[in-house]
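From the methods appendix. Each design record in this collection lists the discretized structure first, followed by the designed amino acid sequence. Records were kept in a plain field format so they could be parsed without special tools. The example shown here is representative of the layout used throughout.

RECORD:
C-ALPHA CELLS (652 positions):
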C-alpha cells in the first residue's frame, strides 16, 4: 500500500474515524423493487464476505483510533449464520449501535440481543400484506416482520419503524403511518429519493426509476429544513456534501466527514454509496489506519470535476437546494461530474417550496442585537403579531440567532415524562430533562394536570419548540409576544445572560444621541418621564417599561423592547448607554450622582428581570451587573410633573 504514502493529506481539524458503518452482506431474502444492491440469498458472493475474525479485527482497529459508534446493515444482515456473534461483539465494543434490518428473520434469541443500547431500524413497505409483499417480492414477508416485532416487544427491545414511500405504496402512506404508530412511538421516513443500482444493472435501474416519486411528493414528504438553511446559508445533501468551486469535487465531503463505510468484502471508503472499486481500500491487504489516514484523503486528488462539473452543477443557481454529489453522478451516469436530472427536478421544487414557506411561515425580528427567527406550522400574517413588533421585523437573520418553532397540538406527555421538576408556580411548571428545559403552562391547582402550552428549549435557550393547545389565539392574532407567552422575558432574559446582557424595569430614551435609562418598578414614573420627553425633538423613545442593556465591543448599549407600559411608543434602535437614572418622585427637580457601589448594585438587582434563576444564570448576570455599575454613571433623579426635568437632563 506504499503507493498511497506520498499522497497523504493533513486536514484541519484532525480527522478521526468516530463512526463506522458495515454491510455484513448484500444478500437478502427480500427482493425489493427499489433496492440498489441486493443479491440473492444463495449468491456465490456470500463466500467472499468478511469472516467473524476479520470483522473483530476491523472493529478493534477502529476502536483504537477513536470509533465508538457503529451502524450494521446489509442486504439483510441476519442472513449470516454468525450474525448473533457479530452483533454481540460490535455492540459490546461500541457506545451505540444502529441496526438496519427487514425484521423477517428476528428470533426470540436475537430479539433479546437487540435490547442493548442503540437503535433498531425495521423497514415496512405497506400497511397490508398485499402491498408490503408486492414491494418486497417475498410472499409472507409482512407476516414475518410482524412476528419479528412481536418478538422484540416480548423481549422489551425498542425499535424504530422506517417507512420508505414510493410509487407503488404511496396510496397507503397514511395507513402505514398509523400502523407504525400502533407498533412503536418511533417512526421515520426513509430516503427522500431512491438510488439506482450500484451494479449499474439496467433492468434493475428501470425498476427503481419506476418507483421514484414525483418531485412534488418527494419534497412534501421530506420537507427541507428551512430554518437551518436560512441561518447557515449552506446547501447540499444532508450527508455533508457542499458545493465547491474547486475542481477536486470529492474534497468537501472527505474533509468534513468523520465516518466510514465497509462493504461485505472488506472494501472501505468514505461513503456507503461509493460503487467505484477505485474508491475502496482492501482491508484484507492493509490496515484501517492506512485506509483512513492515507488512502481516503488521496481520493481528493484522484477525482476531478472538469468542464462538465463547472458548466453544470458547479455553477447552477439551484445548487444550494440540490442533493447532488459526485457519488450520485457516478451511480446515475458512471461520471462523477454528471448532473442527475431527477435531482434537478427535486431541487427546483425544493426552491419553490422554500420561497413559498419563507414568505408565509417565517419571520425575523431583531431585539438586543439578537435575531429571533419565528417558524410556524400555520401561516404568519400581518395580523398575527401586534403592530408594535413590526418595528423590530428584519428581512433575514443576523449572526446571532434564536429560533422559535410554533406547533399547534400538545404532545401526549405525563408529568414523569418531563424530567425533574425545578419550579412550580402558576402559570408555569418548569422541568429539566437532560440538556433541555421544559416549560409547562399549568393552572394554580396542583391536582389539575391540564396543560395549555408546552415549550421545550435547549440548554442555552437558542432553540425552542412551543406547542400550543389550540390554534384559536394564534388565528385571532394581535399577539403581544413571539413566544405566545404573556411576555418574551422568560426567553430573552436567559439568552441575554450568555451575551453579557440583561433586561431592566426601565424606560429608555435616546437623548442627544446617547442612551439614558430611567429605572424603577411600577408607579416609579417611567411612563411619566417618557411622556415628558416624547415631544422633544432631540429625544427618541425606545420603550417606557422594559429595556435591554448589553455590553458590545464599543461599550455598553441600551436597546428598546416591545414590552411597553402606558405609552405604546417602542423602537428597535440602540445607543451608547451614558446614564442610569433611578426615579424618585419629588416636589423639585434635581439629579444626584450615586457614588456608593453597593447602593447602585442593590438598586440594579431590585429592578432586574429574573427568569428561572439558576446558579449558572446568576453567575453570568452578576458579572453583567458588576460591569454596568463599574462603567456607567448612575444617578438618583428627583422630579415633579412640571416638565422642567427635561432641561436638567439635557444639561447632564
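DESIGN:
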Amino acid at each position: 500500500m506504499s503507493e498511497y504514502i506520498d499522497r497523504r493529506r493533513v486536514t484541519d481539524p484532525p480527522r478521526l474515524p468516530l463512526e463506522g458503518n458495515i454491510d455484513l452482506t448484500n444478500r437478502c431474502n427480500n427482493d425489493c423493487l427499489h433496492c440498489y444492491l441486493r443479491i440473492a440469498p444463495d449468491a456465490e458472493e456470500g463466500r467472499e464476505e468478511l469472516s467473524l475474525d476479520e470483522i473483530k479485527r476491523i472493529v478493534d482497529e477502529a476502536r483504537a483510533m477513536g470509533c465508538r459508534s457503529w451502524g450494521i446493515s446489509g442486504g439483510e444482515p441476519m442472513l449470516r449464520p454468525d450474525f448473533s456473534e457479530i452483533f454481540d461483539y460490535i455492540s459490546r465494543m461500541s457506545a451505540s449501535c444502529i441496526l438496519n434490518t427487514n425484521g423477517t428473520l428476528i428470533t426470540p434469541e436475537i430479539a433479546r440481543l437487540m435490547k442493548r443500547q442503540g437503535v433498531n431500524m425495521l423497514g415496512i413497505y405497506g400497511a397490508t400484506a398485499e402491498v408490503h409483499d408486492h414491494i418486497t417480492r417475498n410472499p409472507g414477508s409482512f407476516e414475518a416482520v410482524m412476528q419479528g416485532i412481536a418478538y422484540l416487544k416480548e423481549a422489551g427491545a425498542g425499535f424504530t419503524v422506517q417507512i420508505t414511500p414510493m410509487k407503488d405504496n404511496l396510496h397507503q402512506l397514511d395507513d402505514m403511518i398509523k400502523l407504525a404508530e400502533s407498533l412503536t412511538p418511533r417512526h421515520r421516513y426513509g430516503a427522500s429519493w431512491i438510488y439506482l443500482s450500484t451494479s449499474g444493472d439496467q433492468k434493475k435501474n428501470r425498476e427503481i426509476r419506476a418507483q421514484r416519486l414525483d418531485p412534488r411528493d418527494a419534497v412534501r414528504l421530506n420537507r427541507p429544513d428551512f430554518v437551518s438553511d436560512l441561518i447557515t446559508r449552506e446547501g447540499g445533501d444532508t450527508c455533508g456534501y457542499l458545493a465547491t468551486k474547486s475542481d477536486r469535487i470529492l474534497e468537501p465531503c472527505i474533509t468534513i466527514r468523520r465516518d466510514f463505510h465497509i462493504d461485505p468484502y472488506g472494501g472501505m471508503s468514505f461513503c456507503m454509496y461509493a460503487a467505484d472499486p477505485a474508491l475502496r481500500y482492501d482491508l484484507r491487504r492493509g490496515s484501517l489506519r492506512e485506509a483512513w489516514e492515507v488512502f481516503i484523503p488521496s481520493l481528493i486528488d484522484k477525482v476531478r470535476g472538469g468542464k462538465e462539473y463547472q458548466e453544470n452543477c458547479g455553477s447552477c443557481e439551484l445548487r444550494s437546494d440540490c442533493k447532488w454529489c459526485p457519488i450520485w453522478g457516478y451511480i446515475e451516469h458512471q461520471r462523477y461530474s454528471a448532473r442527475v436530472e431527477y435531482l434537478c427536478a427535486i431541487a427546483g421544487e425544493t426552491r419553490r417550496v422554500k420561497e413559498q414557506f419563507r414568505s408565509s411561515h417565517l419571520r425575523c425580528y431583531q431585539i438586543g442585537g439578537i435575531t429571533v427567527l419565528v417558524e410556524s406550522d400555520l401561516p404568519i400574517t400581518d395580523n398575527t403579531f401586534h403592530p408594535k413588533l413590526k418595528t423590530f421585523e428584519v428581512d433575514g437573520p443576523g449572526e446571532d440567532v434564536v429560533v422559535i418553532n410554533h406547533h399547534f397540538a400538545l404532545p401526549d406527555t405525563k408529568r414523569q415524562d418531563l424530567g425533574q421538576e425545578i419550579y412550580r408556580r402558576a402559570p408555569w411548571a418548569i422541568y429539566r430533562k437532560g440538556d433541555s428545559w421544559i416549560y409547562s403552562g399549568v393552572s394554580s391547582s396542583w391536582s389539575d394536570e391540564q396543560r395549555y402550552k408546552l415549550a421545550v428549549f435547549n440548554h442555552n435557550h437558542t432553540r425552542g419548540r412551543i406547542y400550543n393547545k389550540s390554534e384559536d389565539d394564534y388565528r385571532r392574532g394581535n399577539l403581544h409576544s413571539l413566544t405566545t407567552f404573556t411576555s418574551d422575558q422568560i426567553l430573552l432574559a436567559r439568552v441575554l445572560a450568555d451575551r453579557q446582557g440583561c433586561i431592566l424595569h426601565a424606560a429608555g430614551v435616546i437623548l442627544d444621541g446617547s442612551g439614558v435609562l430611567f429605572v424603577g418598578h411600577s408607579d416609579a414614573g417611567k411612563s411619566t418621564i417618557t411622556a415628558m420627553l416624547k415631544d422633544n425633538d432631540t429625544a427618541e423613545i425606545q420603550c417606557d417599561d422594559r429595556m435591554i442593556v448589553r455590553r458590545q465591543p464599543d461599550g455598553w448599549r441600551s436597546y428598546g423592547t416591545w414590552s411597553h407600559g402606558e405609552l405604546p411608543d417602542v423602537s428597535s434602535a440602540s445607543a451608547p448607554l451614558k446614564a442610569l437614572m433611578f426615579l424618585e418622585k419629588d416636589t423639585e427637580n434635581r439629579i444626584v450622582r450615586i457614588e456608593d457601589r453597593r447602593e447602585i448594585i442593590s438598586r440594579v438587582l431590585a429592578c432586574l428581570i429574573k427568569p428561572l434563576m439558576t446558579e449558572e444564570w446568576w453567575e453570568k448576570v452578576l458579572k453583567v451587573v458588576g460591569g454596568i455599575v463599574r462603567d456607567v454613571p448612575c444617578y438618583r433623579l428627583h422630579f415633579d410633573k412640571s416638565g422642567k426635568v427635561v432641561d436638567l437632563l439635557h444639561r447632564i
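APPENDIX NOTE: The radius of gyration is 31 Å.
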